Automatic annotation (TrEMBL):
Record organism: Vibrio fortis
All residue ranges annotated as the Sodium/calcium exchanger membrane region domain in the record: 4-144, 174-314
Name of the protein described by the UniProt record: Calcium/sodium:proton antiporter
GO cellular component: plasma membrane
One Pfam family it belongs to: Na_Ca_ex
């Protein structure tokens, strides 16, 4: 048991590290080949923080653990808002001024409602997975078109995102990190999922709950790092934007993966319990962010963290559900 916990932590560490190196190398190569910083920022960097969820989702689906894959999506989205934004706001209240952020929040709610519609019958099918990927491609295309217009107006979020793209990295070094990331990422994801299953069986946890707890929190670490880095540099829009973008990517891309790789009947609790928690914290964020103050203050951040801890506590008291 202790061995499984140790390997899970090691796998999680390498998962986050390899995802970061893969994105770093890919972004540097794209810049070197003359791809627009705006395109890199809205695609490679924006999807980079969701790379761990994508790889874990694929690994779990191929292992026949579709509940774990879907639980990872729902749990990660809940953790992104309630835990990560909550902690970030406790450190420094988040002001939200970017037009991109204000536009993406309703989109996040719309995508969340779409997830509810697809999960309503507790079945995630192949064509539903295809639909999610088609919508994901459409979302990327639309965001690129909109962001090109916003860039001319000096949008803070876009400027902050472009500043994260690495410069002065040789093609050889960038390619090396891409190769390392592509090798280590699937290995670490497999290590994480396999040992999470061992732990789940030991404690009598369902596949869904292991995805909602250990795996969800673990794969959300890149978002935590990005949000904390953003707020410490005074880039509040970046901190919130990473969370909103990650949640949209998780539903459209990450949840589409198990639908395509392993269409399955899901636990009734995914829709009956966890979807509503995800929708609830998403709406709570909208109320906070689009209210009169256009901010998430420390009291609101503390409330989000309390919600997350209460939810996790409930899950751990009902581990077999």
């Amino acid at each position: 048991m202790l061995e499984a916990i140790a390997f899970l932590i090691i796998g999680l560490g390498f998962l986050v590290w390899s995802a970061d190196k893969l994105v770093y190398g890919a972004a540097a190569l794209a810049r070197n080949f003359g791809i627009s910083p705006l395109v890199i920022g809205m695609t490679i960097l924006a999807m980079g923080s969701s790379a761990p969820e994508m790889m874990v989702s694929a690994t779990a689906a191929l292992d026949g653990k579709t509940d774990t894959a879907v639980g990872n999506v729902l749990g990660s989205n809940i953790a992104n808002i309630a835990l990560i934004l909550g902690i970030t706001a406790l450190i420094k209240p988040l002001s939200i001024s970017s037009a991109v952020i204000r536009r993406e929040l309703p989109l996040m709610i719309g995508v969340t409602l779409l997830a509810g519609a697809l999960l309503w019958d507790s079945y995630l099918g192949f064509y539903e997975g295809i639909l999610l990927f088609v919508l994901f491609a459409a979302f990327l295309f639309a965001m690129l078109q909109i962001s090109r217009r916003e860039k001319s107006n000096g949008d803070a979020f876009i400027e902050e995102q472009e500043s994260e793209i690495p410069e002065g990295v040789s093609n050889i070094k960038a390619a090396m990190w891409v190769v390392v990331g592509l090798i280590v990422l699937p290995i670490s994801a497999d290590m994480l999922v396999n040992n999470a299953v061992v732990i789940a069986k030991y404690f009598g946890m369902s596949d869904l709950v292991i995805g909602l707890t250990i795996i969800a929190v673990g794969t959300s670490l890149p978002e935590l790092a990005a949000s904390l880095a953003g707020v410490m540099k005074g880039e509040d829009d970046m901190a919130v934007g990473n969370i909103i973008g990650s949640n949209v990517f998780n539903i459209l891309a990450v949840m589409g993966i198990p639908g395509i790789l392993n269409p399955s009947i899901l636990s009734e609790f995914a829709m009956g319990r966890d979807f509503w928690v995800m929708l609830g914290v998403s709406l709570l964020l909208v109320v906070m962010a689009l209210g009169k103050s256009r901010s998430v203050n420390r009291i609101e951040g503390g409330a989000l963290v309390v919600c997350f801890l209460a939810y996790q506590g409930y899950l751990l008291m009902n581990m077999s559900a």
